[in-house]
Amino acid sequence: MEFNLDEAVRIVNQALSLKVNRSLTDVEVIVLKGAWQRQEYDEIATKHQYATSYISQDVAPKLWKTLSEVFGEKMKKSNFKHVIEQYWRTKTVTEPSFETSLSSEEITGESDYSIFTSHQQTESLIFDRYVERSPLETTCYKTLLEPGSLVRIKASSLMGKTFLITKVLTLLAEQGYRTANLSFKLADSKTHLTDLDKFLRWLSINISKELGLPNHLEEYWDEEDMGSKVSCTTYFEDYLLPSEDSPLALCLDDVDLLFPHPEIYEDFFGLLRSWYEKARSRQRWKKLRLVIVHSTDVYIRLNINQSPFNVGLPIELSEFTSLQVKEFAKQHKLESDMNFLEPLMNLVGGHPYLLDLAFSHLKSHPDTKLEEFLADAPTEAGIYASHLRENWLHLRSHPQLATAFKNVVNSIEAVQLEPMEAYQLQSMGLIKLSGNQVQPRCNLYRQYFREHLFLFP
């Protein structure tokens, strides 16, 4: 397998997921890609309409610091490629082994005993901090043990879907499954998302890489006579699926990035549905287990018989409950004094990422005064400054969306937005959507954006 940019991003995302329970943000991917291409920070900033100081003094230093901690070696713009490649050559992060395997009862689903609880000790070697959202994990895992199954996971940005996916795929790999996890964030919007044939080729090649298989695309692809969809199906049916006897669990992440591209999604989602239907009658296709992940409601129009979004098992990740927040705090070794939880949850709710940042900070700075921490949180002096600024910059580059969110944060009651605006804000994780009504996901967002969006009409 060739070590390239896509492989580097994949390795980094997997390492981040296992170590710090997150994946690369969009702007971090931009910095990583730019650094890979040896671009200067001002070039990266100009190309993507960011302030140079934001990239060079904020995003990049924090990215290299985080990666240094995750990979255990000093990392910077000039050497990150070498460090990641060395890690790639010597480590296997996609299939960490457990010390024990599941019992036959757990595999067949004959026992009600929690699969994930039964592996608490061995999981701790891999997942330092993870709050079980019972019964979602077990249900997802057991469903994917079924031939030809499909699971749909919906969760807004930074709600923990990457960790859930990694956890379930890891457990499947332990049972001998082949696993492949492909994020559509890795697709180039101007190249792969404008032409169906290029997109399906990109998809097939990258899944081959995920499985450690050589690229044999040209042996199966015949766009002119068979068409791209039949060529892609043939590649799966005659090459990828039968390459081994074991089932293939394929996770397609961030599929909502296709929603603005009808020239791609209409045929592609119909293709996924056809694969799901094939598994009902064709033995070879029963080996395919699909996981489709998206961060917003499905707002596109699809033929009901050609949509993968109305079949299979739907799973939606919500915020942590108060009990789950307490468990999360305990995992950060903060169980000695839980009095800070109520005011913290009043600020950020049960948002996993925002809680993780807070707990990590409080653990490493035990002398922090809670009143000062809460007062600084929605400001440039707080620990959320980078996260808030990234969202603000995105809104600034989309004035209509910024105006819509301004109306949300300035209203005491839930408000109604145009559907497209609501879906975009939902994807960013900034709002809660209930029917046609929306409100800020948490008070942190209300306080910060009420101050920073006042210039928009």
TrEMBL record:
<feature type="domain" description="vWA-MoxR associated protein N-terminal HTH">
    <location>
        <begin position="4"/>
        <end position="86"/>
    </location>
</feature>
<dbReference type="Pfam" id="PF26355">
    <property type="entry name" value="HTH_VMAP-M9"/>
</dbReference>
<dbReference type="InterPro" id="IPR058651">
    <property type="entry name" value="HTH_VMAP-M9"/>
</dbReference>
<dbReference type="Pfam" id="PF14516">
    <property type="entry name" value="AAA_35"/>
</dbReference>
<dbReference type="InterPro" id="IPR027417">
    <property type="entry name" value="P-loop_NTPase"/>
</dbReference>
<protein>
    <submittedName>
        <fullName>AAA-like domain-containing protein</fullName>
    </submittedName>
</protein>
